[in-house]
Design brief:
By secondary structure, this protein is mainly alpha-helical. The chain has a domain of 92 residues. Helices cover 57% and strands 8% of the residues. A 3-stranded antiparallel β-sheet has the order 1-3-2. The protein is globular and about 45 Å long. The two termini are 22 Å apart. One of its GO terms (cellular component) is plasma membrane. InterPro entries: Pra-immunoreactive (IPR051791), RDD (IPR010432). It is a multi-pass membrane protein.
Length: 145
C-alpha cells in the first residue's frame, strides 16, 4: 500500500468529484463534435448522441480512449484530474500502464451497475479508493505542492 508522505496524500471525494464533473463536460463537448462528424442529427445535440446506436459505441470508445490514454500518460490523469492536481498511480506510486488504465475504465461500469455504490466506497475506504481502484489496484493521489 502507498503510505502518506510529505509530498502526496490521497485525493478526497470533493476533489475527485470535481475532476469527474469537468471531465464529463469535456466528454459531452467531444461527443457532440464527434457525433456531428458522424452526421448524427439528434433532437438534442448532447443527449441524443449518447442514446443513439452509433452514439452508444462512440461514448464507450471515446470515453475509454480519453481516460486510458491520459491516465497512462506522463501526466497520470485526465484534464480534470490535472486541473485539480490529482493523479492515478499503482501500488508503488508509479504511472499505470495503458492496459491497467483500460481495465480501470471498464471496471467503472461495475460501479454504475451497482447504482454508483462502487464510487461511494471511497467515502469509507482508508485510502479513498473506489471499486475500480480496488479491482485494478490503483490509487488516486493529490500533490500538496
Amino acid at each position: 500500500m502507498i503510505l502518506n508522505t510529505p509530498v502526496f496524500h490521497y485525493a478526497n471525494f470533493k476533489e475527485r468529484f470535481a475532476a469527474c464533473l469537468l471531465d464529463t463536460i469535456i466528454m459531452w463537448v467531444l461527443l457532440a463534435f464527434l457525433g456531428n462528424l458522424l452526421n448524427e442529427q439528434p433532437d438534442h445535440i448532447f443527449i441524443g448522441i449518447v442514446f443513439s446506436y452509433k452514439g452508444t459505441w462512440l461514448t464507450v470508445i471515446a470515453g475509454w480512449l480519453y481516460f486510458a490514454i491520459q491516465e497512462s500518460s506522463v501526466h497520470q490523469g485526465t484534464i480534470g484530474k490535472r486541473i485539480f492536481k490529482i493523479q492515478v498511480v499503482d501500488t508503488d506510486g508509479k504511472r499505470i500502464s495503458f492496459l491497467k488504465a483500460s481495465g480501470r475504465y471498464f471496471a467503472k461500469y461495475i460501479s454504475y451497475a451497482l447504482l454508483l455504490l462502487g464510487f461511494f466506497m471511497m467515502l469509507w475506504d482508508k485510502y479513498s479508493r473506489t471499486l475500480h481502484d480496488r479491482i485494478c489496484n490503483t490509487f488516486v493521489l493529490k500533490s500538496k505542492e
